[in-house]
Amino acid sequence: AAAGRWDAVTRLRRAMGDREIKKQPGCSWIEVEDRVHRFIAGDSSHPLSEEIYAELLKLGRQMEKSGYIPDTQSVLHDVEEEEKGHMLFYHSEKLAIAFGLITTLPKTSLFIVKNLRVCSDCHAAIKFISNISDREVIVRDSNCFHHFNNGVCSCGDYW
C-alpha cells in the first residue's frame, strides 16, 4: 500500500477475507478514576463522545496554528488526501488523550496504552498536544514507552 500498488492491496485484502484473516484494530486504553476507558479509531460509542470530539477539534485548530501538518503517508488506503487527514484525526490514541484532557485536572500526566505501534502522524501530533496542553503524555505502544513533554518525545523520534 505504501508503494501505491492498490491492485495488489485489493488482491491481498480479498485473500485475507477469503481465509477469514482479520487485521487487529488499533485500540487504546486510558485509566481515569480507577476505570479503564477503551477507544478504537473513529469510535463514537463512549458516553462522552461529543465532548471528546469537540476537544479534538479544538486541539486540531491549536495544532495547526502551531505548525502541525498531518502526515497522510501513514494512511494506507486509496482515498483522497482530505479523507486521509480525517482518518488520522480520529486514531484511538488521540481519542484517549482528548478524553484524558477533559476528565482530569490540568497538569495531570496522561498514561495511554496502545496495542499497536503509534503511527508517525500520531507521534508528531502527540508532541504538539503535550506542548499545547502543558501535559506529560506517556504512551506505551507495542514497541516502547514514549514520554511526551513540552513537544518532545523521549525516543528522540526514533521508534
The residue fraction in helices comes out at 40-55%
Shape: globular
Please outline the major beta sheet: 6 strands, mixed
- Strand content of the residues, in percent? 15-25%
The count of β-strands is 6
Computed structural class: alpha+beta
Q: What is the count of helical runs?
A: 5
Mean pLDDT: 86
SSE ordering: HEEHHHEHEEE
Radius of gyration: 16 Å
Low-confidence stretches: none
The N- to C-terminal Cα distance equals 21 Å
Order of strands side by side in the largest beta sheet?
A: 2-1-3-4-5-6
Give your account of this protein's structure.
The structure is a single chain. The protein has helices at residues 6-18, 49-65, 81-89, 92-103, 120-133; strands at residues 27-32, 35-40, 110-114, 137-140, 145-149, 152-153. The protein has a 6-stranded mixed beta sheet, with helices on one face. Strand 3 (110-114), helix 5 and strand 4 form a beta-alpha-beta unit. The mean pLDDT is 86. It has 159 residues and is of the alpha+beta class.
Question: What's the short version?
Answer:
This protein has helices at 6-18, 49-65, 81-89, 92-103, 120-133; strands at 27-32, 35-40, 110-114, 137-140, 145-149, 152-153. It has 159 residues and is of the alpha+beta class. The protein is globular, with a radius of gyration of 16 Å.
